[in-house]
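Narrative progress, year one. The postdoctoral researcher (J.K.) led the effort to move from monomer predictions toward full complexes, under supervision of the PI. The following entry was the first complex the group processed end to end, covering 664 residues in total.
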Amino acid sequence: MRVYHFSEEPYPDVWSPDRPTLRVTLPNELCVPQRANELYHRYIDEWMLADELGFDIMLNEHHSTATCLTASANLLLAILARVTKRARLLVLGVPVCNRQDPVRIAEEMAMVDVISGGRLEFGMIKGVPYEIAPANSQPTRMMDRFWEAHDLIVKAMTTHNGAFNFEGEFFHHRTVNIWPRPWQQPHPPIWSSTSTPSNAREIGLRGYVVGSFMGGIEETIKLHKAYAEGYREGGYGSDVPVDRFGYLAMCATAEDEGEARRRADLIADYLRTNAQVADPFNKPPGYFSVDAAFRSMRSPNPAAFRTLYTPKGRPVELSTASLDDFIECGIAFAGTPEQVYNQICAFVDGIGGLGNLLLMGQGGHMNHAQTVDSLKLMGKHVLPKLKARYPEDMKFAKAA
Amino acid sequence: MTSAKTEGLDTFDIHGTEVQAFVGGQGPNVVYLHSALWVGDDTTFVRELAKQARVIAPLHPGIGAGKDANKTGSVDDLAYLYLDLIEHLKLRDVTLVGASFGGWIAAEMAVRNCNALSKLVLVDALGIKVGARDHRDIVDFFGTPDKDLRAMSFAEPANAGGDLRSLGDDDLRTRLRARETLARYGWQPYMHNPRLRLRLHRINVPTLVLWGDRDGIARPDYGRAYADLIPGAQFELVNNAGHLAHIEHAEQLASRIHTFAHNR
């Protein structure tokens, strides 16, 4: 099992439940550049520590928001490619529908792959709804654009005998010929993320790695099954390697259980602030199908961020849930190192196998000392046991 | 080409694209192109038009239940589609009326070919850029809360009807489809074609530009600039009307349009 450390590089100083929005239209006069400078350096230090402790590294990006200072994951990747030594560098992901030029993505990813000596894990994602406005991205037919961008990126990464041209429905290039070419052949491992079984199946059909985010055990079991179906149908074999599946949860530990829970509660503000988006930016036209938009309008609480269910069937609204709700759902692992280890094992065994555990080990107001302590305890007491219990060449458990 | 009647709408196959349209009334030909939001709220206006004219009012592909809506991806496509519809129906001496987004399509049709047209009426029409590059001529339909859009679209809040959640299931689905369709055609450049204003000189039929005096989506000055770019166009305000003047004052607008259309 690979265990990744993830942070959104939050700027939590201006977070407040009273603000109607933390995203898209929050004036950047609230961002003090000197403070942002401190935070960037601090988060990079934490990733460097994670590298030393045996973690791998995960990044993402968001725009026009105080919840995430990583406006370009590619830039941060470039820094980490240089300053880290051994960790896999997972970007999950590059929002390929919101970028004007897929070839530029291929170039930058190849550059990171080469600088890092082949440590890139390359996630291509659709991006969340409120990224549409900052990117000024066309919200209709996004997935058609996604797959065309994907095809062009993969072709750019894998074509080595000179320039080719590309005249698609959305993207046009006269002469595609990227330098450098990627270190990893034929290309870095490709990931994508989803929260729906139909997309998990689609990713499985292509044999790519699927990243599922904070769906809790009940939702993740469905994605796991759908991915395995797609993978088998794609002809990659009946045994699905666990390294094809990733799951993101929040995680904090401490010697003292109370302190660990306080830390996890700070991280959980990540989910609690997720619903703080000015309304029209949450539901761009065409981003959701008409049926999905209709169901959302007809739901009792259309402003709700996301509702999940505990294994006992109790609904949990993520923007208002308690830490115990999150732990019960399998969205947070929190407690002493032993408690965290047991919670993780219950989750991994419950879904039937997991090769990539993506842990949000820093979030919100969780400070540097708390983050370092939590990471060190994980590195010392939890990672070795997880790696021993879940070898990297494991396969998905057979359905009962 | 074939046509069939479903749910009060006629269906036409225009070179492989299915177009649904209301066809009704007796008299001179009026082709009416609807605004994209508040679709369906203009039935009174259409009924008033049909009292003195034969009205053909297509539902823009993507909003209706028509198949293959993806065949049209731009206002350019829609302009040719409706010119083809006029040809298919062998219409002559058409008074072409377009409101808001429909006004944009009407202007794009007229700059391409006025042969079948006798008059053009634009009601709070979108489609051109007149202000500075960092000035928003047209309020962002997709970045503005629904309640604010209603206030900008209607001079009297009572005319705006309830919020989206108060709509019946079919109307809500239609409204959501309309929002998505509007984004497909007008996301970027936002609700305009930078080339259109350079072509408006080609319109060679008498043109009336009607504008709600309290249009909060595109201000009357925008309408005046629009009219100034069309040779000989008349500009007239509609008192106490927002962006959707034809919905807010259906009877008055239909009457003013008929007076203009019949005054040869």
